[in-house]
Amino acid sequence: MTKKTYLLLALLVAALLFPILVPNQYYLQILILVFIWTIAVYGLNTITGLTGQLSLAHAGFFAIGAYSLGLLTINAGIPFWAAFVLAIVITTIISFFIGIVALRTKSHFFAIYTMSVGFLIYLIIYKSELTGGVRGLIGIPNPAPIGPLTFESIQSYYYLMLFFLLLTIFFMYRLFHSLLGKTFVAIRNSEELAETLGISVMKNKLLAFVISAGLASLSGALYASYVRFLGPQMADIHVAFEILLYLLVGGIGTLAGPLIGTFIVVVLTQMLQFLEEFRMLVFGPIVVLLILFYPRGIVGGYLMWRAKRAKKQKVADANTTTKGENGNAVNH
After folding, report:
1. Quick check: 23 pLDDT over 70?
2. Which of 154, 195, 242, 275 has the greatest CB tally within 10 Å of its CB?
3. Where is pLDDT greater, at 313 or 70?
4. What mean pLDDT value characterizes the chain?
């Protein structure tokens, strides 16, 4: 096995043993939130990182997934896991019809349109009696037991969220290394060139948009099952920008970026809680410096450094080989 495989196995073992070695509930709550938001960031990475379309409706899809789960379980009385699946299906169907219109626009027009869609979703949740309006939605049930597994303790929630995060990472890994993922990247690099190669740009961008919304709704449904209270502020535009910030810090278009970026920002935010309203005076400059010196994010910056190092090593090896061949020629 390679060093990378050993590192991944070590991280997995550490994640599995963390609740046993560090039973502090505060730390577990922070990691649960990291797991939930990371799934949403992977969704944004699909449409923004792979196809190059900046979507600002992500918080809206996150909220639709959360509220769908809440309304289906509380008002309709549907069993939890059936409602969980339906919440994702409902969100993906809505995103399909939104995407058909939104993806006819390009660049900043697409961002503005999706921001307007996100704000419209927020207004519907805020004004509607069905969603509870400003009062919100209370009493979302715990996830139903699966055989002997129950989800009532903080540790059980930790492992549940970790399971869905690992499932999402596996899905994204397969997507990144699939023909579909390479098709998305080709569209990001040049839509015109992709069309000349016979790629259906609109079809593939719509698929990426739906996948993105599906992951956002999965994250929202998990958030609703954990917090068990929903308010309209979760669909606010600032949530969309927070998700984008996690992606920017970690690295757009990278596989590990969403996880690393979300972990760093969420943990850093929690560490600065003691500063109360002044924490942004410290947090803001740190984020600005990160984006200035690592415009491709932490993971993107590391990958660039590694590529440059490999290139230099290759040139050095080529020079050494050339010198050796010249030396042999002189000896002859």
Report:
1. yes
2. 242
3. 70
4. 89
Task: Pick 1 or 187 by higher pLDDT.
Answer: 187
For the CA atoms of 69, 70, 75, 79, the dihedral, rounded to the nearest 10 degrees, stands at: 50
Structure tokens at 82: 């059936």
What does the DSSP assignment read for 213-239?
HHHHHHHHHHHHHHH-EE-GGGGSHHH
Look up residue 287 and give its amino acid: V
pLDDT of residue 167: 96
The yes-or-no verdict on residue 170 having pLDDT over 90 is: yes
Local structure of residue 149 (DSSP, 8 states): B
Angle of helix 25-44 versus helix 3-21 axis, rounded to 10: 140
According to DSSP, the residues that pair with 229 across neighbouring strands are: 138
The pair of structure tokens assigned to 188 is: 């990001």
Per the listing, tokens 């924490």 go with 279
Place of tokens 């979760």: 234
Residue 137 sits at φ, ψ, to 5 deg, of -120, 125
CA 13 to chain centroid, in Å, comes to 22
- What stretch of H or E contains 268? helix 257-271
Cα distance between residue 71 and residue 217, in whole Å: 14
φ and ψ of 167, to 5 deg: -65, -40
* pLDDT class of 328 with cuts at 50, 70, 90: low
Phi, then psi, of 200 in degrees rounded to 5: -80, 100
Strand partners, 137: 230
Structural contact between residues 180 and 187, judged by C-beta atoms closer than 8 angstroms:
no
At 177, which amino acid appears?
H
Whole-number percent of the chain with pLDDT over 70: 94
DSSP H helices, 45-79, are 58-74
CB 175 within 8 A of CB 181: yes
Question: How far are the Cα atoms of 84, 89, 285, 323 from residue 330, in angstroms, in the given order?
Answer: 75, 73, 59, 11
